[in-house]
Amino acid sequence: MRFATPVTLLAAISGTCAMVIQRDNPLAKCINSVTSSLNKLDVATKSFNGDIQPVVEAADNVIATIQHGQMVTDSTPSISLFSAAALLQPVQILDNRAKVLFVDVKGRVLDVQKAKKCHVIRAKLSTLNFVGHKLIDTILNKISSGFARNIARPFTDDIKGLLAKSLDLFEGARCIDAY
């Protein structure tokens, strides 16, 4: 119950200002771009047929998008409660997209093993894990309001957890190229 009141308050603030801020907020644009690149990676994942190149290209696109987001975030001043509220919806959408992608990736582990490309996916996921954690931490540390940071943390922790679980799926003992 204690959590419901802050979430309701933040949702109200978010709904009030999101239409004005979201299109002008560079961080919201970055988060939306990451979500869009994850959509493309999901399409490549679902259509994987043994040819790893489309997946590699889509993963490289996600990495580049996150790195661009890192540059934008690094140059952004601290994030106020008002600005953080405008990020809530894009972060929720990103979190949901990451969950869908995780399920789809999990369903393709055996296919990657058969194609003998575990090492390739492991390397891409390792990089995604690193740059993703860095961007998440940078954004969280830029939020000046402890209240807003506490609201964001469950979503960011969820995304970090999905990154780690994805990497674990292709860990050396679980995904072996010599299937």
Write the layout of secondary structure elements.
Elements: H1 4-21, H2 26-46, H3 53-74, H4 81-106, H5 109-114, H6 118-142, H7 146-169
Helix pairs in contact: 1-4, 2-3, 2-4, 3-6, 4-7, 6-7
Q: What features would you highlight for this structure?
A:
79% helix; mainly alpha; signal; elongated; 179 residues; Cell wall galactomannoprotein; disordered N terminus
Give a quick precis of the structure:
The chain has 179 residues and is mainly alpha-helical. Helix content is 79%, strand content 0%.
Strand content: under 5%
What separation lies between the terminal Cα atoms? 50 Å
Number of strands: 0
Q: Give the uncertain stretches in residue-range form.
A: 1-23
Order of helices and strands: HHHHHHH
> How does the major sheet shape up?
none
Q: What is the domain total for the residues?
A: 1
Q: Level of helix content?
A: over 70%
Task: Assign the structural class, choosing from mainly alpha, mainly beta, alpha/beta, alpha+beta, or little secondary structure.
Answer: mainly alpha
Count of helices? 7
Give the overall shape. elongated
Measured on Cα atoms, how large is the radius of gyration?
Answer: 17 Å
Q: What integer is the average pLDDT?
A: 88
Description:
This protein is mainly α and 179 residues long. The chain has one domain. Helix content is 79%, strand content 0%. The protein has 7 helices and no strands. It starts with a helix and ends in a 10-residue tail after the last helix. The N terminus is likely disordered.
